[in-house]
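[User]
Um, tokens okay?
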Amino acid sequence: MMPTAPAGHRAMVHEAAFYSSDEEFLDVVVPFLQGGLEIGAPTVVALGEHNTELVRSAMPDISHLSLMRDQYLRPASVIKSVRQLLTGHLSEGARQIRIVGEVPQPGLEVPWDWWARYEATVNHAFDEFPLWALCLYDSRIASSEVLDDVAQTHPYLVTTDGRHVLNDRYTRPEVFLSQPRPTHPDPLEASPPLINLVDPMPLAARQAVREVSPTTRLTTTDVEGLVIAVCEAVTNAICHGRPPVQLCVWASLDRIVVTVTDRGVGPSDPFVGLLPAVTAPAGGLGLWLTHQLCSLVTLDKLTEGFTIRLVGGKPIASSVHLATLRH
């Protein structure tokens, strides 16, 4: 039975389940999916390849389930596409929609920082929908830091014996997203930047990315996306930050890393970048656009200023997010 939403929750139920074996995974997922099919609720599976095959083995006839995975690349894009999905099901008369999913897992060389922000933000972004979302985390892979974030971003927890419990560690998204977080620089930042500009104009920022791109294997699409994102970040720092603005660029064969730092306090909107601003600036959608175009965006608020980190290509996960796989 669907758990009762806590006071202040209008519709969405956002649960997390931790598992440490294939058997525990199926013990949680199969009843959730079967329950959705029994009541005729649109039911979506957004799992990785291994776990999708586990579901197929346990439920051979999954033709009534919708499979979604490729969209789990950038949090802002996922939020946009899921809102469209939910709106479509509501227009067709759905009274409940179920999604079981797993974000790209830390522990598999995938950065966690913006997925932590995603897990907090969806409590706000989807709260108007009759959505029951079950998020799966492999406790053999995710680090204690990741599991701590998961515990703070899900109002409900599911135990492997099927109990749905209120999570007393849940932190409202605007509070979670406003808390100071550790910074996780890219390993390339341990070396001096290839380009270091102070108070650059947007044109110089775009040229800086294009200047280093021939030394990489990035596609034209990745480079041009990063060019636009860096331009937006520099424009944002000039218009809303405090000078001086510093732009640094690093590059390797598989990625370009750009940081834009100003001496301001950073944006006040806790959902900045993951949700479009209510009133977009005339020149574009700013930090929301950067989140659509880059393979990683992190926001660091420190006493000395605000830094946005933009990565094009293949980002590297911080070692603190990785747990040793226990068999």
In short: Residues 229 and 290 are 4 Å apart (CA to CA).
